[in-house]
Amino acid sequence: MKLYHRKEILSFSFLAVTSISLIVLLASSVLTLAAPPGGVRPHDRTRLAKGQAALPIKKSQTLHQPINAPKLVTFAPAFQQKNPITSTWTARKTGARAGAVPNAAGDCLSPTIDLRVLVIASDGNEADLPAIKQALDYLGTPYTVYVASQTPGGLTPDKLSNGCHGYYQGIILTNGSLAYYNGTDWASALSQQEWTDLWNYEATMGVRELSWYTYPTPDFGYQWPTAAVDTSVTPIPLNVTAQAQAAFPYLNAGTTIPIQNAYTYLAQPLTDGATTVVLSDANSNALAAVRTYSDGRQALSLTFDSNPNLIHNIVLSYGLVNWLTQGLLLGSRHVYMSAQVDDLFIDDSEWLPNTDCSTPVDNTGATYRITGSDLKAVVAWQKSKRAASVSANTTLSLAFNGSGTVAGAYTPDTLTPAATGNQAQFNWISHTYDHTNLDTVDYATANSEITLNNKAAKKLGLSHYSTLNMVTPDVSGLTNAAFLQAAYNNGIRYLVTDTSVAGYNNPSPNAGIYNTYQPAILMIPRHPNNLFYNVTTPAEWVAEYNCIYASFWGRNLSYQEILDKESQVLVTYLLKSELDPWMFHQSNLRAYDGTHTLLGDLLDLTLQKYAQYYNLPILNQTMNALGQTVANWMQYTGAGVTASIVPGVSITITAQKAARVPVTGLNMTGSEVYGGQHISYVNLTAGQSVTLPLT
Description:
By secondary structure, the chain is of the alpha/beta class. About 20% of the residues lie in helices and about 20% in strands.
């Protein structure tokens, strides 16, 4: 017996580089769906919706020395110089300030500093500005963007502090001299007085500076550059130096990070003892360095450009922000992977290797439902992943349709007994009872689909199953009030969306969407991908993939090339610390050679690429735990949380709305330790303020 149901080939992103721009292209199938023999399926669609055509990303640009380049100013020492890599906020006592430029605030024996970052852009068009914002947004670290050219002379001392109250714990520059083209010349967006005031603030408060893209000069601790390299053709491998490893504890020691698609300046470091090289290439060029000035100020600069989708930027960004904030910041960072596999227990269409490209994707004349042997191979694969520290938590989430377990539905049925015998190895999610599309069903039908599958879960003895969750067939029903009422009444609080559909992507990093019709239901954005629902072997995947994308790439791709491209997108999600789950299907779990599966091959390469860089354990949550994580995150980022510290003494946190506030670097009783850092969670009611010790 075959259960008919409808699927879509969903769009996903590809990174493509041209000589003009770097573009993320979202391509999708335009193949049509046909009815099965015997008539139109009641829940079929007649075509597949196209995804977004293109998402432009700014091309990396060379830097220019401004005609009004700032002249470096230093001040009399205010406090003992800190370690350029490992220092943290500590209590300090300042001495007399008799510097060449006096401190307008006087001597600050015990300053108060807000936990907020100031991002200074030249004109707001820099390619790395979105990358900087992305890094802070994923962390949940408050920041202010100040576009200097829009308010000439506006960065006055009162914008930075009020007496001994500093408004920012760190300063990020989009480029070292804030150079921009003003229509006539390349100029610095800050005047000399503004630079002096900024440096005075940093020296007074012990605040660090980070230049995300820098033309290397002696002021930043470099010799003059010897070359400017366009790395779109030839990547430059960089390494974290031994003395800087402590700033990037989440990176594997000795790992090589490729700089690609970003202009890079090559320069040797100064050897005067005040420059600490952080990143270097094989020729000992300093690609990032910390300069410690005589007044105690410290500035970290990078000699290469960035944008949000470049691996080197994503991999380094947490370490850069952690250095800037001296290991204490509002927000947190974790790495998550949630692979959701739809349609367990029912069959999917199968795209055989000789299928004509014009064939409707859901009427190929062949279907496949995995067997007990297939599932046992998946169990063995999961066990192998759990043997590695970074992937020890690997657990697939199986979205199942209980109708496929009814006696006689499939004969022979080796899958159901294999699933019940290994049920504890997986997380389980309801996918409705028989895969009915929920866009137009009435309340009674929706209620039946929910309750029957809950009964099936109980009968199967699924221990890692919660009635709080559902993955709807075809990601349907999200605007059907009847279904949503039935979902709410049956206790469902978490659904998923399709991020390729307009209006259903994350409204902000890692945020979900509360359903308009049922605001108590949180919709978790879920990524589709190009491991199609109807492929079970490498030959099938290659055949269908090339039907759709050969014209895009200009040729047919091999299986390994497809794996490489798809895993590159998935590993980007991991490295960015995205919460969104990923969509797959039961057909992708076929053990095509008795051992390997398409999904296993794809995740193997994804995890291999991840482990190339990170040593952080990947967290794998059940869908209801993931939903609570998303809800907590949204509550925190929307609560108007502010904080300030008296360095080395105390931290005061205030929330306008109730929130569970994550604070990285705060060691409270019961704090979490992740990546070698303490993360404390402070629960605040609306309007509450709490002061906690830092020692």
